[in-house]
Structures are given as C-alpha cells and as structure tokens.
Write the structure tokens for this entry.
Amino acid sequence: MTRARSSMTSPSSTPEEDFIFPTGGALGAEVRGVDLSLPLSESEVATIRRALLDHFVLLFPGQRITDEELVRFTSYFGRPVEHVRQQRDRPVKEIFFISNVRENGELIGALGNEEVSFHSDLSYLPRPGTLSLLYAVEVPSSGGDTHWCNCSAAYEALGAAAKDELKGLRALHRHYVDSQNPLEPVTHPVVCTHPDSGRRALYVGPHLTKSIVGMPSTDSDALLQRLYDHLSQPRFIWTHSWCLGDLIMWDNRPTMHRRDAFPDTERRVMKRTQVFNDEVPFE
Ligand code: OGA
Ligand code: MN
C-alpha cells in the first residue's frame, strides 16, 4: 500500500479518469491511489460522490485504516450511525462486524458463513440506510465473494408493458429475525427513484422482500420470482473476490447485493459502517 497521497490531491489538474477505473462490468469502479488513513479534501470527496452516483459501487483496494479512520471516511458521505442491530463489545459504536468468527463461543459479527441472498441493506426499515461500507480485515482462501446487482440497468431493460405493470405497486419488506422489525409493517415501492440522479431502479430482493401488497399470494410470488430471475441475469451483476485491505462502498438505492457461502473452518472478518439519512424511498 502506498502511504503517500496520489494524484487525488489536486482534482483541478487531475481529471476523474486518472484515478476512477470502471470495472467494465455491470457496475462499479476502482478508486486507485487514495489513502483513506488520511483526511480527504472537499474536492476529493466531491469526486468520490460523483463516481458513486455514476458507478454505484466503489472499491478502494489496499487500505490499512483504523476504526476511527473508517468512521471518518464514512462521515464524508452522511451521518454514520450505530447499526440498528446490537453487537457486544464494540469500542467504536458506528462499526458493525460481519463475521463467522466466534470468541468464547459467541459470534463476534452477523451473517455467519452461509450464503446471503440478494437484498438492499435495511430495506425492512421505513427509512432504510443509503450507503454501506465494508472493509475486509480477514478473508477466507475460498468463497465469500460478494455480488452486486445493477437494479437501475435491470429496470431500464424492462419493456414498456413490464414497466407499466409495476407502476404503483408496493412490496412488504421484513427481516427474518422477527425482533429486528418495526411494529408496523414496512412497505416500499417496487420501483424507486434515486433522489440525486432521478434514475429508477427495481427495489425488491429475495432476502428481505416478502410479497406485493394487495396481490393474491400466488400472483405475488410469481411476479417477484419473475423480477428476481430478471435481476439475477449475469449482465446485471458484478462480483468481487475480497482481498485483505479492500474497502467497498455502495449505494443501496440502485443496487442489491448477495454473498456466497464460505467454509466455516476459515475466518472472515469485515468491518461495516452505514450512512443513514431521513429519506423515505419513493416511486
Ligand atoms: C452487508 C452484507 C455481505 C458480505 O454487510 O450488508 O450483506 O459480503 N455483507 O459480507
Ligand atoms: Mn447487506
């Protein structure tokens, strides 16, 4: 890892294309030569925000940052919040662990080692999180890849009749751990508009979406399955195999993600932060 600052220090003379490298896949770009252990300037932050709007997922490889530095970087993009789920022994409250590691018989993080199907983070809340960040601290030698889906491209690829059919529909979202759910049922539009770009995206996924509101369950199941089949086409997916020191930041509004299983005999430790705002998803 380079500790020295790169071309990003002077955005006026360094166009975005010098350090933002699109993956060439369905979404995503790699941001090279930026050291997140150092504070960023306003123009650097603006460039990263712009890149996030364009690419939805940004990979910052080769980082070596402390918890405080991870929270500082997160705070450039909104309010980093204590994750809604409780975890024990977290010295920095804004950091949530995603891990299969056990200490004294207790899991130190969430999600274990199993596959996690497509979802948009915290969609079971009335005001879901906007951005999520995941920083790889320990990675397994196989498995545990994360796949992001470009839900904007998937929506835009639908025909006019299919888009029409989705107009005005809402879906019920629920966490599989009952105690995580608010008392009132949470519904969101099936198609949501990004408040900053105005682009629409499909906002349903098999992990947290339960049904289409007001539709008989066989019709609802059939429609959701049809949407999931559409979303999971390889042309809408970008996959990342994690390396130590990778930090990935994504916008949950135009994307969903899922994770592959990995051997429970191996350790995977990811530090996770989350940006909230008060936004209610809208069609
Ligand atoms: C998450 C998540 C996937 C992963 O942190 O929200 O879905 O790869 N993580 O650990
Ligand atoms: Mn997630």
